[in-house]
Structure formats: structure tokens, C-alpha cells
Amino acid sequence: MALYFISIGLNDSKDISLKGLETVKKCAKVYLEGYTSVLNCPVSDLEKLYGKKVIIADRDLVESKAGETILKDAEEQNTAFLVVGDVFSATTHMDLWLRAKEKGIETIAIHNASVLTAVGITGLELYKFGKVTSIPFHNKDVKSPIEVLKQNQKMGLHTLFLLDLDPKEKKFLAINDAAAYLIKNRVPKDTKAVACCALGSSHPLLKYGALEILQKESFSKFPQSLIIPGKLHFMEEKALELLA
Fold first, then answer.
1. For the whole model, what pTM was predicted?
2. What would the pLDDT profile of 5-15 be if each residue is shown by its tens digit?
3. Top-level CATH class of 2-113?
4. Over the stretch 140-186, which tens digit does the pLDDT of each residue have?
5. CA quadruple 126, 131, 134, 135: dihedral sign
6. What residues have CB less than 8 Å from 132, skipping those under 6 apart?
7. 116-241 adopts what CATH topology?
8. Distance CA 110, CA 27 (A)
9. How far separated are the first and last CA of the chain, in Å rounded?
């Protein structure tokens, strides 16, 4: 018996790898982590493709109740733990991996694309990204994203801001809210940034412009993220010009 950590990509049911799909089909129980990200398709699409019932695993189930659910199942039968993007993009998944190891459960990971690699479509070089940070919904007294930005800027590195979301309540922090947060925390309003919507989809929405401009725009595709570029290579500049 094993617990399979299966990455299912960023957009819809068809983004799962062939290896991932074959593995899901041989599992007795299938859980879908449902709080760090969300697909642009209903869960019913996954169930139709997999031929399996998909159990939504919220944060409480994964972080507090996995012992009597996911891990208990994996001790008795092949169990799949599906993750949007890639399995180890969030620390909560490594915690589950380690708890499974401690119980002597065989753990196997199947990888896929994540937002950390999909940002390459902007033309910004992946190896020039610094520390990634998140902007939460309730950010009035939150300063850590600003500190991360300052640290990255000192080294000329790009900063990726992941924007908060609550799939259960269908709530998403939007790019204009993130831009407003940055400006409120004294990031110059003329700072250029890249708005990224629905990364990993066939038609992601990308826009390059000043924070004060992005703050006024409404972007309808989700999930969303924001990038403030660091020192640019001329090829990066050329790529960003196409997004202006």
C-alpha cells in the first residue's frame, strides 16, 4: 500500500500527467487538497476522467485530521493525494509526507507544472527570481511581503507575490488589491509590475504596467499573482514590452 502525492497541474482536468492518471485509477481513495490553489474546472470533470469519487481535503483535514483519514486509508489501500500545481510548492504537503514516512507508509511523488515555473511565460528568467512571498486577505498590519521585496531588490532579483485565495468561499485576492497594498506600504506607485492571471491555462492574461495603473484595472481570470521585476536583461525587457 502507498500514499501517492500526485501533482495535477494548474488549469483543468487534462493537465494531469499520463503517469499521474494511471496512478489515480489504481487508487482506492482519492483526496484533492482544496485550499492552497484551485483549478479552472469543476471537481466533477476530474471524477469523470478518473472514474473515481474525489474527496475534497480542506486545511483542517490535511493538517489536523489526516491521521484518521488520509494516512489511515494509505495504511490499508493505495491512496492518492492530489495537489493543484506541484506537490511540494506548499510546506503543508511536506508535513503530510513526513507524517506518512513516520508511520512507515510508502510515499511516492509525481510532479507537474507549478506557478513557480509557469511564470516563465512572462519572459522573466526563472533563475533570477528571489524569495517568493504571499499577500493575505487581511494585510493591514502585514509587512513581511514588503521586506521580501526590499531584500530581493537589493540583489536585483524578481519578486513573485502569490495572492491569497479561499476556494471554499470562492474568494480571491485580486491584482488591483495587491497593487493597492503595495502602494499603501510605500512602494512607489510608478513601480512596474507584471499582472499574471490563470497561469498554466491555454490563454493566461498577462499585463505589464505601473502599480497605479494595475490598481485601477479589473482582471477576471483567476488565480492571480503579481511580479515586480528586478534588474532586467535586454531579452527580458523585450518580452515585457509585448505585455505592456
1. 0.93
2. 999 999 999 99
3. alpha beta
4. 999 999 999 999 999 999 999 999 999 888 899 999 999 999 999 99
5. negative
6. 116, 148, 159, 160, 161, 162
7. 3.30.950
8. 14
9. 51
Instruction: Using the structure block, give the residue that is written with the C-alpha cell 515585457.
Output: 240
188-214 residues labelled b (16+ CB within 10 A) or e (exposed): eeebbbbbbbbbbbeebbbbbbebebb
Find where cell 506557478 sits: 115
Q: Provide the residue ranges of all domains of the chain, joining segments of one domain with +.
A: 2-113, 116-241
- Per-residue pLDDT reduced to its tens digit, 191-212: 999 999 999 999 999 999 999 9
24: its cell numbers: 489515480
Residue 75 C-alpha cell reads as 495504511
